[in-house]
Amino acid sequence: MELPRTADVVVVGGGCMGVSTAYRLAARGLRVVLVEQGDLTSGTTGRSSAIVRTHYTLPTLVRMAQDALEDFRGWHERLPGDPGFRNAGFVLFVADHNADNLTRNVAMQRAFGVDTSVMGRDDLARLVPGMHVDDVGAAAYEPLSGYADPWQVVSSLAQGARDLGGVVATGVTATAIRRGSGGAVAGVDTSAGPVDAPVVVNAGGNWSDRLSRPLGVPLPVEPQRESIVLFDLPEGLADPPIVIDMVQFMYVRPHGGRRVLFGDEDHELENLHPHLATPDEPDLAMPSPDAVENAAVKIIHRFPALAEGSLVPAGYTGRYEVTPDFQPLIGQPAEVPGYFYACGFSGHGFKLTPVVGRLMAEWILDGRPSIDLGEFDAGRFARGAPLVSPHPYRTGLGLV
Fold it and tell me: Helices in the chain by DSSP H: which ranges?
């Protein structure tokens, strides 16, 4: 398509963060051009399990997630379109050695206004009948959390941006961010021609570093596979809430039609989740046989009745955009005025969609976001200061 030759802001990336930022900027009166090399949601967002919850161990993420949950629950009064949000409830549980830190994290979350509580084994067994809980040390329950539809979220925000005069261009690749006098951003070169703009937001997910590194701002983002397997629920087993199982490092989410969606979070199993060589390598149409077998073993351990169910002949692989500490990269490097980035969300991103867009718009227009995002600066790795939670969960994968 033909692009405008000038804009107030160019946003790169047509996933949830890009369209949210584009919408929020357009809603505040800026001329916005968003470019996406594929289709909207063709990257990480389109394969997201789209869980919307607030349980985090970093206080800043808790605050952001709480604001975002309120946006999802009140979407129709606050944002355009329909996100497909479903209230399912959410429970996260840990082994005995992490129980004290879970209690501390729930107290921190409640201080931010999160509706959450600590549960023991008996409470958890009543909440989710039929779930094996003997190896659970403690659980956190959020009754208001749920899940949404990635395509509905992205298409709603993209259309909202268009309705406000923004341009959302798919099939257009950003090839370089141009700098002008003093090193400030001057615009973006694209496969459809250049667009001059004093501000660029890089929300390119797994492709973010390609645009950023030539500016002298490396963004350490690596694509990592995620295998999703679907299971039918047998008769007599009620739909479970969303479950994050940090004993086995997996999650389960209702999927409609008496099915559940299983995601394996054990990224140390290289035969199941090999790192992708480049972000351009395609996702697999189906999880590998090893991944399916591993999923069956884990989910049946947690829900023994599923041994009487059936494996749905469907599933898919997606990809996380992960950073070395599995925390987001959000920043505005002082050495490149007008350049902003929001990427590397490491599985946290979708649920933060509405709030990240708002914060980026505040940063660009007001000079600072209403939530301090300084800890997510990509320069933390060069400083040898990766993010560590005050009360992390110790697992076989390290601290999370």
Answer: 16-27, 59-73, 75-78, 99-111, 121-127, 150-163, 208-212, 289-302, 353-366
Residue 56 lies in a domain: no
Give buried/exposed letters for 144-160 (b at 16+ CB in 10 A, else e): bbbbbbbebbbbbbbbb
What is the value of pTM for the model shown? 0.95
CA 365 vs. chain centroid, Å, equals 24
Residues sharing a CB contact under 8 Å with residue 353, sequence separation 6 or more, in sequence order: 16, 17, 20, 68, 153, 157
pLDDT at 46: 84
What the block records as the tokens of 115 is 């509706």
- Rounded mean pLDDT for each run of 10 residues along the chain, 400 residues in total: 93 97 98 96 89 97 98 98 97 96 98 97 93 96 97 98 98 97 95 98 96 97 88 84 95 88 76 72 78 90 84 76 95 97 95 98 98 98 96 72
My answer on whether 279 and 231 are in the same domain is yes
Predicted pLDDT at 173: 97
We report the CATH number of the domain holding residue 171 as 3.50.50.60
Alpha-carbon distance of 143 to 25, in angstroms, equals 32
Per-residue tokens: 209: 């570093």
CA distance 359 to 74: 18
For residue 139 the two structure tokens come to: 């659980």
Position 10, amino acid:
V
Residue 35 in contact with residue 172, Cβ under 8 Å? yes
Instruction: Tell how many helices (H) and how many strands (E) occur in the chain.
Output: 9, 22
Domain limit, last residue, from 261, 286, 319: 319
CA-nearest of 366, 386, 367, 368 to 377 is 386
Six token digits for residue 144: 């208001």
Strand 167-170 vs strand 138-142: parallel, antiparallel, or unpaired? unpaired
User: What is the identity of the amino acid at 65?
Assistant: A
Which distant-in-sequence residues (6+ apart) come within 8 Å of 280 by Cβ?
Answer: none
Place of tokens 């090399």: 37
Question: What domain range is 252 assigned to?
Answer: 85-146+222-319
